[in-house]
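Bench notes, afternoon.
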Amino acid sequence: MSNIQISPLDAYNEEWLSHARPSDWQNPTPDGRYNLLVIGGGSAGLVCAAGAAGVGAKVALVEKAYLGGDCLNVGCVPSKTILRTAKAVGDIRRAARFGVHVPAGVTVDFTAVMERMRKVRADISHHDSAYRFRDAGIDVFLGDGQFTGPDAFAIDGKTIRFKKAVIATGSRPAFIPIPGLAAAGYLTNESIFFQLTELPPRLAVIGAGPIGAELAQAFRRFGSQVTLFDVLPQVLGREDEEAADVVGWALSEDGIALRLGVEIQEIVTRGEDKVVRFVQDGEERETAVTHILLAVGRAPNVEGLNLEAAHVAYHKKGVQINDNLQTTNPNIFAAGDVALKYQFTHTADAAARIVVQNALFLGRKKFSALTIPWVTYTDPEVAHVGLYPRDAADHGLAIDTYTTYLKDTDRGRADGETEGFVKVHVKKGTDTILGATIVAPHAGEMISEITLAMVAGTGLGKLTQVIHPYPTQAEAIRKTADAWNRTRLTPAVAGLFDRWLSWTR
């Protein structure tokens, strides 16, 4: 995360900074050899540090920018805070279908929206405070440092010696070299939450992945004219195609102009406008906007660490690790966005717990043993766990798929929330759950039931026995399990039942 200028320096940002990077902080003097050096104070690093200190280890924690990492500062916390406002706007604009009329329409106070975001971030920053970790017995070092050997790390001219270390330096917004983009200027998820104070009148979002789709929808509901670009032919390009279709429909309903399957040729400045020139269906087109948000993925933070001195190998996707999260230096581990394919806060947390066990207690915990769900927080949400059909095909696994649509649940009809579904993939001929996708207003709250079943080794058949309160949208999970159960009623079984019931009448 870059040290970009913070604006405005109001009471909330000052409170946040007092925890994330206190201006008067004095780094301690390194005290002998540490059981664990943690490099990076984001989700993975903080869990490693707290977990190790909690079992009595001597821990040093180094953070280059702001404690809390992307999640607290420019990711989960600020984005989900403003998405809550965006959802409220959507609910109000749809109120007429429920017989509720808002004659004056919806007015969004963008200044108040961002002020609330800063307040929530400041409130939560107490959990990640430098003082809190210092009081837990951890030596906290704020500043830029690098490895000087396989068991040494230097910061502020001081050398930290360690027995084990974990690299948890996270990631940053990726950049793609579109001609004219850098000269025209652009926003990222960092600058939006660190600097943006006025609503962009006309916004181009480049990248229709989770970050791009979420923020495009939010800013459209706040009042920006939004155009969403992607080189792929669907939003959420890696997601289930049917799920992407629902989200694409929702974004269009909000008034977002979707420019999918396009090639952006250049950005040119024309007066106060930034003009995006692109090719779609073989035709050259252009869109003039006032602001551009670049949301094309993440790049791992491996630069400046002098990993070569530590004998740690890395590549363009991050630090090289094995299934135990060890790097090519067996005494140095890596966790979080800097090394993992699944770049989520909850994945970083889970990986950090593995690191503590493996680094300090000779553990052999494997990252591949984890079952990892994730959620895209558009409206409706998309939640997924396990394999997609394409993954199953890559593994040579034949699958059966069972789907229940929200329109076929009574709660979905009552809520007027019928655009969504529960889709579960099982190993062919069995009830073994391999993966699932849920599209629903609260899909993220629903996916854990299926995740738990997968972790526990519970088949889809067992979910037919789980009583779901009526009416809930989560009933769609039981209905999907019932769909699997009905496949057991083969003609042969039906014939046996018929004969039995005739005989017992």
